[in-house]
Amino acid sequence: MKNLSPGPALALVVLIPTGAGLLAYAAGNAAARAGSGAAPFSLQIVFAAVLGVLVLAATAVIVWLARQVRAAAAYAEDLAAVRVPELTRRVRAGEPVDPATALPPPVDGPFAELGEALHALACHAVDAVTAETISRDAQQLALRVGRDNQTLLHRQLTMLDEVESRQTDPDELARLFTIDHLAARMRRNVEKHLTLSGSTPARRWRKPVPMLDVLRAAAAEATDYHRVDVAPVSGPVLLGRALIDVTHLLAELIDNALEAAPGQQVRVVCTPIGGEVLITVRDVGPAIDPGALAAANELLRAPATATEQQRGHGLHVASRLAQRRGITVTLQTSPQGSTATVLIPGDLLTVPSPPTEPAAAGAGPARSGHVVGSGPSRPRRGVDVIR
């Protein structure tokens, strides 16, 4: 009888003993009359009275329980439809909210424990929305800072272009080229941060770009670009809308290959296959552990959320970029080294346009001037911003 209110409790305390007493009386009366030879005519009446008393008691308890159930349901409905939505609205509006005091306390009764559980659940829901709002605001702030940094780095690279074009001293020019390469890598890191945050870099490219220029631009963005060997290829042309993502994707895979084989060459080969393009990035480093290889391929198939504690964030970036463009990336390994294969779908490719004027050897897309590397002394960077 825990948590029963006085009304039902009193009814049970009075009616149940009364019914039991009537039953005992009826049984004794029946036995006595049977012993004396008299007809037990009152037995049916007594049983009917007892049954009526029990029915009344059960009805009282059922009515009381129904009221308690309705009260618990109304409390749950009030939390779900009114209180929690109102508190979440206030949280998203920036108001400080303490759900433990703002939510109504649970009602007493046989369902008090259920009410307490609903109250705790509602508090957790509001707390979760609060944490999500704080995380979202922090993410938006970080994205704004990242985009501002991207703009500043673009301005810095533009100024470096101007200074390099006026510099004639080979030593000073080499130093400027090194600074240029570091700035380009910083811009790539900023854009990696934007990609991992679920955003897209602001840089855009409109014109189709020969695949050879794309490969060279990706190699130029790698940390140790001197060790990257890009095989010549002619024919395939990448649409401009996919240029930034494909360049970053290949740069991440090239960086992973360079790290896997310190001091060794990494070879990048592009092969047209039907209406698609297959790109391979090969290194001669040690074979990858089968468990790590399976985990890496699973990550490349289905992007996961990267955390600061997770290493190999380059694969997280590559996975996001591949998913964004419908590109298939697979890792393979052997005792002779490892290979990353990148299958570019046909909807990202186009046929090369006929040249309108002779192009200088190693020339890149218009206005970039830094897509194609012309030698180890000149670390060319990827395509620049087109507003």
From TrEMBL:
- InterPro entries to which the protein is assigned, alphabetical: HATPase_C_sf, HATPase_dom, TCS_sensor_his_kinase
- Residue span, Histidine kinase/HSP90-like ATPase domain: 241-348
Region Disordered: what ranges?
A: 351-387
Enzyme Commission number(s) from the entry: 2.7.13.3
Give TM regions. Answer: 44-66
State a GO cellular component annotated for this protein: plasma membrane
What is the organism of origin for this protein? Catenuloplanes atrovinosus
UniProt keyword list: Kinase, Membrane, Phosphoprotein, Transferase, Transmembrane, Transmembrane helix
Q: Which domain of life is it from?
A: Bacteria
What is the name attached to this protein's record?
histidine kinase
